[in-house]
């Protein structure tokens, strides 16, 4: 029957009448968005409503999407006036198993009677009951229900679904319940970025709190030396989890890899590959793999080669996406439905051609995201929008947020003034507390416009009604820009519209003909399945891997970390006698002679190893020859105490740090790109000792007084995130391991502190570490630490709650208190 409806739908789509009716709907839709006069004929509504019901029955996904677009536009344009339309929408959503939209429908149109007949009511109630589970407070889509059922049955699950289908929420609900109700269980949640650690850990805590489990479960975001709670959920990047597994033998009951397409990411893929293999060495967890694209489903075949996954996939999102071409011509804006002949002209009502001005004209009254390729472009767009808004918003929360930015970053940082008008920017080089503050304000409707970079592609949950795109591309330092991967552009556009809030999201494609890459939204023929980066680089650039094995790979590029990780993994596999098995994997396309030559090179390199294989594995991004050289250097030192890493609060910290990092720089192990070695050490000292970002920024501004405040703030945080928390931490982790190996071989007791852990956290005080592990941001932990007497420990949520209830934290900034309240209340 679906094939019949597909044939009928194609006939409708090709008809002249449908073209005229859909154009009229689109014209009214755009005019309502822009606040212009609009009116649609009732007969047109009737015809389109009939058509979309046929479209929903089709087995062609593109036709079903057209049906979803039509229905969402009709509800927006005339849902209030045409009550029958809402009743029909209720029926359509029910037949499609789309219960989140039924919930939204009844919230938006509470005065409409949805009952048609007793038979229909009973049938709908039955369908809704089937899609309702006790643990979740709203009915599920058919996809979500199937995913939940597989999880409950203990299946290993691999799932692919677009952003905004609610897959992560379902999985986290399941994990929290299972760990809480167990006699004791460990769950590992692997996320690609530090920003997602805080987002996911906060979501886990909120779920636990809602179920009354918050005191039963420990949420761990950093490796620690003391014992873990018997019920612990680890929320970590692959780097942190890998380090945790090196320090401790842990057996996980559950493994959830979120945004799992990163197995094919150039910079993260190899370490994720290694981390997952390390997890499997310690047990047989229930494995849950989640990704936005079906092209990555087979990327895990070799890692989990004996696992039979239950596949749950869908290309359908409850939130329709409406693509709108947008172009400025003289004093007008011309808008057209993507790949249609419809065209609507509205007055521009502003001077110039800035993207921020276009967003303000078309997005007023709604939530909006303006995507930009660079951080400074975000700031420019936010300023352009802010300049068009004449009055500050009457919002105490925005005033508090602006004051926080001025106080804890700098008073001249433009985000402070933007926030007062409900405008913000969001990008990687922002402190975690500020990013989370912006995200919270946006979700609560306080912020109307956010200009942001590819943080949207990393899974950060920032949905909005409208998304504005202009020439999206991947900026490459010192190189030509590249096209953004399809999976990332899908993640970005997936932020247009929010489940349970919008029936659809608008994606405005601004000046599409001028884009460097214009085929983002073209229907593409089936492409080859993605494979892990480990295999892809071996296939594409085996010579680069050989250079890494020889220690000659170009150190001036960040690509060195990936290539050295591959080289180290090959050496480990050679030692374990699994190298031939790896090179015989189906994903490897190397010719037999090339494999033989590669194995020979691995064998020669293995014979040159001085460091032990455990140390090599523990430092996956540092080449073995670099480790050999550093090992020889340390072995030749007479008094190793002169080369020990001091306590973080030592007065010798900067001097010793610069001395050691300068040597690491000479060996090609620490190569900062955002700053010099001495200045990176200046910032690192303040960072490790828990000084406020404000004081660190002032140090930068004194060092570069002619630079704009925004530039200085960005550069400080980029230095901290890249040169210090990643590169310096990795280099010092390697140094510490080699130093310890040598002292043990000499039977010498020389105290050297694991500074890399304190660098990752951003402080060294025990209470500070406790606060960060609870889930608070670095800046919040710094402020709490500065206000309390040093002899008050905060080992858990309950202690923090007691201090809060006793008003011991009353002098904190309101934004700091709100972050605490989100955890406790």
From TrEMBL:
Signal peptide: none annotated. The keyword ATP-binding applies. PANTHER family: DNA POLYMERASE THETA, PUTATIVE (AFU_ORTHOLOGUE AFUA_1G05260)-RELATED (PTHR47961), DNA-DIRECTED DNA POLYMERASE (PTHR47961:SF6). The lineage of its organism: Bacteria, Pseudomonadati, Thermodesulfobacteriota, Desulfovibrionia, Desulfovibrionales. SUPFAM superfamilies: P-loop containing nucleoside triphosphate hydrolases. Residues 148-294 form the Helicase ATP-binding domain. Pfam families: DEAD. SMART domains: DEXDc, HELICc. GO terms for molecular function: helicase activity. It comes from the Bacteria. This is DEAD/DEAH box helicase. Keywords: ATP-binding, Helicase, Hydrolase, Nucleotide-binding. Residues 354-539 form the Helicase C-terminal domain. Coiled coil: none annotated.
């Amino acid at each position: 029957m679906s094939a019949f409806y597909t044939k009928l739908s194609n006939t409708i789509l090709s008809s002249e009448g449908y073209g005229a009716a859909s154009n009229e709907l689109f014209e009214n839709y755009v005019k309502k968005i822009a606040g212009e006069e609009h009116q649609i004929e009732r007969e047109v509504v009737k015809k389109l409503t009939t058509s979309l019901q046929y479209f929903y029955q089709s087995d062609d996904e593109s036709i079903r999407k057209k049906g979803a677009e039509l229905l969402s536009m009709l509800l927006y344009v005339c849902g209030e006036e045409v009550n029958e339309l809402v009743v029909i929408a209720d029926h359509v959503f029910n037949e499609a198993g789309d219960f989140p939209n039924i919930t939204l429908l009844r919230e938006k149109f509470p005065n409409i009677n949805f009952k048609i007949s007793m038979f229909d009511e009973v049938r709908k109630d039955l369908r809704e009951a089937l899609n309702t589970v006790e643990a979740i407070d709203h009915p599920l889509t058919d996809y979500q229900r199937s995913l939940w059922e597989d999880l409950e049955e203990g299946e290993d699950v691999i799932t692919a679904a677009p952003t905004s289908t609610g897959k992560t929420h379902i999985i986290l609900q399941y994990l929290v319940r299972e760990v809480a109700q167990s006699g004791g269980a460990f769950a590992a949640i692997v996320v690609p970025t530090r920003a997602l650690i805080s987002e996911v850990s906060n979501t886990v805590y909120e779920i636990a709190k809602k179920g009354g489990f918050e005191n039963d479960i420990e949420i761990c975001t950093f490796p620690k030396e003391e014992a873990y709670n018997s019920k612990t959920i680890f929320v970590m990047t692959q780097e942190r989890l890998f380090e945790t597994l090196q320090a401790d033998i842990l057996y996980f009951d559950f493994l959830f890899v979120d945004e799992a397409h990163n197995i094919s990411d150039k910079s993260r893929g190899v370490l994720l590959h290694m981390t997952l293999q390390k997890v499997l060495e310690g047990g047989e967890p229930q494995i849950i793999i989640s990704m936005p694209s079906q092209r990555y489903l087979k990327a895990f075949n070799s890692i989990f080669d004996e696992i039979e996954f239950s596949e749950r996939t869908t290309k359908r999102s409850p939130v329709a996406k409406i693509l709108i071409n947008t172009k400025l011509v003289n004093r007008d804006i011309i808008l057209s439905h993507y790949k249609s002949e419809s065209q609507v002209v509205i007055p521009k009502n502003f001077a110039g051609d800035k993207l921020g001005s276009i967003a303000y004209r078309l997005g007023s009254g709604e939530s909006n995201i303006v995507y930009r390729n660079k951080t400074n472009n975000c700031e420019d767009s936010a300023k352009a929008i802010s300049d068009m808004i004449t009055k500050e918003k009457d919002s105490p929360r925005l005033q508090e947020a602006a004051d926080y930015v001025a106080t804890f970053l700098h008073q001249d940082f433009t985000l402070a003034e933007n926030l007062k008008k409900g405008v913000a920017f969001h990008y990687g080089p922002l402190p975690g507390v500020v990013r989370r503050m912006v995200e919270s304000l946006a979700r609560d409707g306080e912020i109307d416009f956010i200009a942001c970079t590819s943080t949207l592609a990393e899974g950060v949950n920032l949905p909005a009604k409208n998304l504005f795109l202009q020439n999206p591309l991947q900026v490459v330092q010192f190189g030509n820009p590249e096209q953004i991967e399809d999976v990332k552009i899908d993640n970005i556009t997936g932020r247009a519209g929010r489940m349970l809030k919008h029936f659809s999201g608008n994606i405005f494609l601004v000046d599409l003909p001028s884009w460097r890459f214009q085929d983002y939204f073209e229907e593409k023929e089936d492409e080859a399945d993605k494979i892990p980066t480990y295999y892809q680089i071996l296939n594409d650039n085996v010579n680069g891997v050989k250079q890494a094995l020889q220690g000659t790979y170009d150190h001036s590029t960040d690509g060195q970390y990936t290539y050295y990780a591959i080289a180290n993994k090959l050496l480990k596999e050679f030692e374990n006698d699994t190298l031939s098995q790896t090179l015989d994997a189906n994903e490897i396309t190397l010719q037999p002679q090339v494999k033989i030559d590669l194995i020979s090179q691995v064998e020669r390199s293995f014979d040159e190893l001085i460091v032990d294989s455990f140390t090599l594995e523990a430092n996956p991004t540092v080449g073995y020859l670099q480790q050999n050289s550093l090992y020889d250097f340390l072995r030749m030192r007479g008094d190793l105490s002169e080369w020990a890493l001091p306590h973080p609060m030592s007065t010798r910290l900067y001097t010793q740090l610069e001395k050691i990092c300068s040597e690491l720089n000479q060996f090609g192990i620490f190569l900062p790109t955002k700053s010099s070695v001495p200045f990176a050490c200046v910032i690192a000292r303040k960072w490790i000792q828990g000084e406020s970002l404000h004081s660190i920024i002032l140090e930068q501004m004194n060092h570069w007084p002619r630079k704009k405040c925004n530039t200085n703030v960005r550069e400080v945080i980029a230095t901290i995130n890249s040169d210090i928390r990643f590169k310096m931490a990795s280099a010092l982790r390697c140094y510490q391991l080699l130093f310890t190996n040598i002292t043990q071989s000499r039977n010498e007791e020389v105290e050297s502190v694991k500074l890399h852990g304190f660098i990752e956290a951003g402080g060294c005080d025990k209470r500070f570490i406790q606060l960060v592990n609870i889930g608070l941001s670095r800046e919040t932990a710094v402020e709490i630490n500065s206000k309390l007497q040093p002899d008050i420990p905060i080992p858990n949520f309950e202690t923090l709650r007691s201090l809060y209830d006793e008003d011991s934290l009353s002098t904190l900034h309101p934004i700091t208190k709100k972050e605490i309240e989100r955890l406790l209340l």
